[in-house]
């Protein structure tokens, strides 16, 4: 039953159409959207999050194309490209420009010359991302295609990620050729968006999962396997891409989460279905194109019967994939199965040793330790837990998570998302990061410079102060200043360790002081209220 105007009685699960804030005043149950997810998967925000991880771990995050933010970095983009071309004259790249707020392929275009951005009319002032175009994709039937995989973020703390074993493959409708000035505008050749290609006269609707312009991902895997390609490694690489991408997003999501659902206050828990769009290169390397926070769950398509007359026709391929994803997501978060989920989680946490992707990604047999299904008529879960199952392989990447924890600790006021100057000084003082060569005056200058720059690039201005991204930049600056001659990620980790150690010592002192005061108060109460103790009403010397 739908409640477009909200519902007064509490629900076990709230299924929102767009964002966490579709309904207000939810104090219990589960919501199918995380606060802040809509903002975090926008093209600019996602690119910033991925770029921050690429600075720390360039090799681990090379699955995301090089990106620049427009218009803020237009000149930097042009100069960087010209610099590389000056070093390597054989480098003839193509770039793809994507509007930040665009969807379904709207406003996307390709360029060869960085200077072409300036002559694209009204688009030049719109916030966009420009990326290096992947010019050598894997082709099937001479067509370019991408993969839509469904990922379920079940929990932020602890982090719990599932991936659907089946997905969709969306095909272009014009045979692929590497970009040239002549074919740059051939959208049916270069853009895999379903919403674009469905308008092509070559689009093929098919009820067969192995043919047509939209197919199941498993049909592609079987096709690749028949060519002798390593499908297990491909799945392993895809799972790695998914986990690393979520790790890049979680620090900011935690800040959003504590702002909307402060600790200690009643509120719902959250989960979310995400759509990961992935492109395979010619050598079978998965590359992340984008993440969709509201992936389409339509299982029919429009068919024109006559000019202006359409009917909705079921799509068996969509139905096969999407119904299973929604059904099993609801089974996964079913509040009546908490004890089974707890058992499944405990088993997963105890089996985090390093290993390749399990064979059961390709099996329809139910997992031995899967969430028990009381309805035997339902098929086995189509969702596979990948985190914390493979946590040991990826926990070393979660440095920004630890930085976010420091940031949240010093926010002070519940519900805020930015750090004030006093809170930043408290962070520096408590972690003992100032010294003779880095005074508190230098701390204030650092805060003002970085905060002013981040607040000038079009981020949220509703609240003054230092955002998490600005805090992270300041933290990296401090790490580079204190620890030299080691890689950046080691510098950052060393400073995190130092801060956590200082704060733990401070917490222990505070706990000890609290216990001392509590004990003293209890002893005074004993002296004052115990009638049989025959203690003089005058203070004992021990307490003077």
From TrEMBL:
Pfam short name (any one): TTL
UniProt keywords, alphabetically: ATP-binding, Ligase, Nucleotide-binding
Residue segments, region Disordered: 341-360
One GO term of the biological process aspect: microtubule cytoskeleton organization
Organism domain of life: Eukaryota
GO molecular function: ATP binding; tubulin binding; tubulin-glutamic acid ligase activity
Cellular-component GO terms for this entry: ciliary basal body
Name this protein carries in UniProt: Tubulin polyglutamylase TTLL11 isoform X2
Source species: Microcaecilia unicolor
Gene name of the record: TTLL11
């Amino acid at each position: 039953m739908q409640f477009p105007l909200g519902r007064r009685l509490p629900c076990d699960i709230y299924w929102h159409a767009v964002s966490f804030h579709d309904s207000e005043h939810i104090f219990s149950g589960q919501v199918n959207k995380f606060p802040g997810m809509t903002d975090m998967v926008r093209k600019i925000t996602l690119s910033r999050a991925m770029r921050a991880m690429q600075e720390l771990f360039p090799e681990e995050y090379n699955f995301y194309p090089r990106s620049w933010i427009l218009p803020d970095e237009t000149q930097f983009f042009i100069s960087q490209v010209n610099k590389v071309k000056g070093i390597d004259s054989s480098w003839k790249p193509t770039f793809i420009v994507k509007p930040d707020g665009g969807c379904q392929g709207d406003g996307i275009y390709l360029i060869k010359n960085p200077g072409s951005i300036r002559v694209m009319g009204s688009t030049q002032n719109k916030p966009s991302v420009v990326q290096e175009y992947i010019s050598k994709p894997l082709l099937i039937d001479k067509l370019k295609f991408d993969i839509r995989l469904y990922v379920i973020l079940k929990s932020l703390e602890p982090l719990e990620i599932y991936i659907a074993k089946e997905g969709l493959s969306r095909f272009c409708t014009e045979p692929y050729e590497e970009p040239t000035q002549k074919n740059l505008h051939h959208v049916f050749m270069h853009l895999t968006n379903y919403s674009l290609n469905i308008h092509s006269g070559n689009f093929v609707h098919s009820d067969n999962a192995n043919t047509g312009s939209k197919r199941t991902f498993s049909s592609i895997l079987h096709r690749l396997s028949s060519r002798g390609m390593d499908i297990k490694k491909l799945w392993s690489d895809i799972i790695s891409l998914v986990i690393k991408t979520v790790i890049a997003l979680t620090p900011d999501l935690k800040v959003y989460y504590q702002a909307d659902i402060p600790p200690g206050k009643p509120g719902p828990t959250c989960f979310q279905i995400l759509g990961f769009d992935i492109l395979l290169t010619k050598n079978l390397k998965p590359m992340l194109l984008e993440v969709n926070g509201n992936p389409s769950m339509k299982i029919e398509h429009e068919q024109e019967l006559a000019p202006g007359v359409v009917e909705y026709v079921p799509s068996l391929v969509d139905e096969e994939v999407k119904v299973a994803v929604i059904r099993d997501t609801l089974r996964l978060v079913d509040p009546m199965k908490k004890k089974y989920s707890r058992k499944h989680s405990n088993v997963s946490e105890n089996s985090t040793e390093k290993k390749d992707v399990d064979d059961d990604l390709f099996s329809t047999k139910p997992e031995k330790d899967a969430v028990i299904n009381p309805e035997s008529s339902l098929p086995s879960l189509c969702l596979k837990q990948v985190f914390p199952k493979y946590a040991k392989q990826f926990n070393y990447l979660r440095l920004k998570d630890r930085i976010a924890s420091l940031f949240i600790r010093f926010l002070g006021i519940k519900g805020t998302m930015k750090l004030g100057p006093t809170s930043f000084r408290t962070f520096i003082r408590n972690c003992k990061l100032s010294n003779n060569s880095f005074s508190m005056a230098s701390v204030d200058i650092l805060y003002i410079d970085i905060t002013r720059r981040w607040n000038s690039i079009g981020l949220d201005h509703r609240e003054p102060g230092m955002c998490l991204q600005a805090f992270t930049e300041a933290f990296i600056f401090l790490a580079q200043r204190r620890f030299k001659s080691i890689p950046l990620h080691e510098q950052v980790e060393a400073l995190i360790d130092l801060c956590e150690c200082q704060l733990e010592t401070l917490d222990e002192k505070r706990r000890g002081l609290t216990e001392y005061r509590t004990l003293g108060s209890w002893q005074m109460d004993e002296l004052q209220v115990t009638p049989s103790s025959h203690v003089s009403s005058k203070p004992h010397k021990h307490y003077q």
